[in-house]
Amino acid sequence: LGMTTSRANGCANLVTDCGALADDATDASSAFYHCMDLAVQRAGCVMVPAGAYRISPVELNVSNVEFRVDNRAVFRPYQHGPAGTTGSGALFTFGQRWPTSPNYVANVSLHGSAPGRFTIDLSTPLRAPWKVRAVAFAGIKGFLIANVLAKMSPPDSHSELPDGDGRSQWCEYPYAPSPFLRLPLRLSFVPAYQPG
């Protein structure tokens, strides 16, 4: 997926417009929120360039925003402090985990470019009080997540982490799905701890 400039296509760019560092170390979460605000003033889209991004849980909580992710982009949990602890919960929540409005967030998409896939990498054992998840859904209607490779952690990785359960999960429904919830998921799962 070739990235054009945000000026050329009207989209906000996560790096050049919103300040994310794709250095596999810096927390890029705040750049997502800045870009969502910027996207509603532009064409309703955010370009995510190639690179390795560390993020704390991010809520995709602005309606009518499309995240166009370069297939060479990789997302991993941000690790806090010298112990390398990670925040619990999902890297991406579609909607609002703790809704402040009775209205649903609507029409949010996060996708790579077929036939390729971007990556959510949870393959490294993680120190967290609960399982780390790739995605969650809450207070959302009308969403798409597509062309993504999810690398999951070993099922027994928690045995090495006495302070918490380090296993990863693909997704979570914090609340009962609404009648508007649809799951057009086009995903691939890789148990990254197995050879190959």
Task: Explain how this protein is built.
By secondary structure, the chain is mainly beta. 8% of the residues lie in helices and 42% in strands. It has helices spanning 6-9, 29-39, and strands at 12-13, 23-27, 45-48, 51-55, 58-60, 65-69, 73-77, 79-80, 85-86, 89-95, 105-111, 118-121, 132-138, 140-152, 168-172, 186-191. Strands 1, 2, 3, 4, 6, 7, 11, 12, 14 and 16 form a ten-stranded parallel beta sheet that branches. Strands 5-10-13-15 form a four-stranded parallel beta sheet. It has a two-stranded antiparallel ribbon with strand order 8-9. Strand 8 and strand 9 (85-86) form a beta hairpin. The longest helix has 11 residues, at 29-39. It is globular. Residues 1-8, 157-166 and 172-196 have low confidence and may be disordered.
